[in-house]
Design goal:
Strand 4, helix 5 and strand 5 form a beta-alpha-beta unit. The protein contains 11 helices and 9 strands.
Length: 329
């Protein structure tokens, strides 16, 4: 099941373009000074990508909110995007209710549920996604593309990122076979290990996505950090050999040249204590490179699940248990 959803990711991007083109987003007269994206898990990861994607194109900052509360600055100059695939995410719905009294421009992204019902009732803009998918984390293409279209339709960003979506879909479709080969090889390296994911500044979103996918699909713990920040703290923690750990660097030829140098030095240091691997993205722009890492990481997480006994990549029983317990209070 999960492998089929991963395989369809390039087509999901193409379908998301059609949804975004057709979306009706009302113009907003107050100027937008900041963007707030509210969402959690597979529904919220799109905002993490958006923040890094537009940071050089737009002078409007993006904050990703993954909880119940809203920052104090939210007001009529805020574009607040609420993303929940099911439309029933508790934290997102509570934050949404709080936003209603702020005067912010609100746009909702969901397949249905309480979020779409509330948006319809209150006359708010919303984009409805195809329903029936078993795993919100497998629907990231829908949410990230809709967020880009919302920003474009409200003149927060231009057309460059919009134009990069179809070329990214083509790249992934063309490279999918090779990506799968690389992912299976890497899964065999990481099997039985605790993966540590390192990447460069401005490209943290794919590392966050991979960490989450390894958690959910592979049912494994892992962590991530970013160069150069980890050079000022975590690097000091590498002091002794640990057979439980393995390091994977997500790299890009467009990374800052000083970070490229830092990574080479980092690898020489860390190789003394744990195996070190790397994967370079392909793509002519940041969006394509990010989506390449996403697709590689999704396949990697699935292969890691397949290499273990009795692991179902779709199953999230512990999260369902948590929600059931919360419903009692």
């Amino acid at each position: 099941m999960m492998d089929s959803l991963i395989r369809e990711f390039p087509e999901q991007l193409r379908e998301a373009i059609e949804i975004g083109e057709a979306a009706k987003i009302k113009k907003y007269k107050p100027s937008i000074h900041h963007v707030l994206v509210c969402g959690l898990g597979g529904s919220g990861i799109g905002g993490t990508f958006i923040k890094e994607l537009i940071e050089k194109e737009s002078n409007i900052p993006v904050l990703v909110n993954k909880g119940y509360n809203l920052p104090g600055y939210v007001g009529e100059n805020t574009l607040a995007i609420f993303s929940s695939y099911s439309g029933n995410t508790e934290e997102t719905l509570i934050a949404f209710e709080k936003a209603l009294n702020t005067g912010a421009k609100i746009v909702c992204i969901s397949s249905g549920g309480k979020l779409i019902a509330a948006a319809q009732e209150k006359g708010l803009d919303y984009i409805q996604l195809p329903g029936g998918k078993p795993s919100p984390r497998a629907c990231m293409g829908y949410s990230i593309v809709q967020q880009l279209y919302i920003l474009n339709k409200l003149n927060v960003i231009g057309d460059d990122l919009i134009n990069a979506i179809p070329t990214a879909a083509d790249l992934l479709a063309d490279e999918q076979g090779e990506i799968m080969v690389q992912a299976l090889e890497m899964a065999n390296h990481l099997k039985g290990k605790i993966p540590i994911i390192y990447t460069s500044e401005g490209m943290e979103a794919p590392a966050v996505r991979l960490r989450q996918q390894i958690n959910e699909n592979s049912k494994m713990l892992c962590w991530h950090h970013v160069v150069p920040e980890m050079n000022h703290n975590e690097l000091v923690g590498w002091r002794s050999k640990n057979d439980q750990l393995a390091v994977l660097y997500l790299r890009n030829k467009s990374d800052h040249e000083r970070n490229q140098t830092r990574i080479r030095i980092n690898q020489d240091i860390i190789k003394k204590y744990a195996p070190v691997y790397e994967i370079f993205s392909k793509g002519n722009n940041k969006f394509e490179q990010m989506m390449y890492h996403v697709h590689f990481g999704d396949w990697l997480s699935w292969y890691l699940s397949e290499l273990q006994e009795d692991v179902d990549a779709v199953e999230i029983e512990v999260i369902n248990y948590l929600k059931g317990e919360l419903s009692k209070f």
